[in-house]
Amino acid sequence: AKENGRKQYIIYADEFGENVYEKFEITNDFYDALDKEQFKLNYQPQVDLHSGKIVGVEALIRWQHPTKGVISPAKFIPVAEETGLIIPLGSWILRKACLDRKQWLEAGIQDIRVAVNISMKQFQQENFVETVLSILEETGLDPTYLELEITESIAMNKHQDVIKKLTLLREKQIYVSIDDFGTGYSSLSYLKELPINQLKVDQSFVQGIDHGNYQILQSIITLAQAMQLSVVAEGVETEKQAQRLKEFKCSIAQGYLYYKPMPVEDLLPVLKSI
Ligand code: C2E
Ligand code: CA
Ligand code: CA
Ligand code: CA
Known about the structure:
The chain is an alpha/beta fold. 46% of the residues lie in helices and 20% in strands. The chain has helices spanning 13-16, 20-35, 73-83, 86-106, 120-124, 128-139, 152-155, 159-171, 188-192, 203-207, 215-226, 239-247, 264-272; strands at 39-48, 54-65, 69-71, 113-118, 146-151, 175-181, 198-201, 230-233, 252-253, 262-263. An 8-stranded mixed beta barrel has the order 1-2-4-5-6-7-8-9, surrounded by 4 helices. It binds ligand C2E and calcium ion (3 copies). Residues 179-180, 200, 202, 234 line the site of one calcium ion. This is EAL domain-containing protein. Residues 23-274 form the EAL domain. It comes from Lysinibacillus antri.
């Protein structure tokens, strides 16, 4: 552990099982990482399936650890959630994404939105909406360029609170997507009441196409259309999947077939070329 005079977190073995040591290390290195700018945002473009045009980019965080190399968010976001460190990290992510989007605007890139993943703890903060609005104000980004991705499980929790927050965000023209759709247990009547813009179909349903399992995927796309929501297919890797998605009238795709997540330096030339 570092002797940096800051709060140390004690993590009990029975909470985390055998990965306890690793989680402990991640937590202790975390403060340093925020200070030393070891976090980076990569961006993955989303394309219109028919025109091939880029319609948005999703920000995906990476931790460039000094000794462990690049650590996946799948590993450290859950730890950040458990310890509460997601709050300062989440604000950092939002601010960085807004600043980056502003730069692309100054470079003449119009229309596209930047999508930011929001974790459960972050969304449930009482002042979540105020935090988002103050970051927009501070960075000077027009709210119409910002999209927030909240998972289906966040959206299905604490109904009234979720509706209240989403309504405030929508009033400011911030775009709202439900991430990993199809993996939670959405009540459809409940979904209908949410002021949202878009569903992102979980990649497991896209991969199902390869095994002839596309009934759920097709139903989700139909459902989105019936509710007048935009729909993004995630994790599109093959032409065959893209073809099927077009047949199902899915409008937007994201995946390695089109673009991998890339560092911010590489994105601007891509945005300029289209
Ligand atoms: P997610 O939001 O569902 O992000 C999609 C994940 O799929 C990303 O993994 C992306 O790199 C990956 N992906 C994109 N295209 C393809 C493809 O064609 N095939 C396959 N197999 N995978 C593809 P990544 O970047 O490792 O992120 C994993 C998860 O970590 C994200 O899942 C999200 O839940 C979380 N995460 C990432 N960045 C952030 C962040 O800034 N904030 C928060 N709260 N969570 C984040
Ligand atoms: Ca996402
Ligand atoms: Ca997702
Ligand atoms: Ca996911």
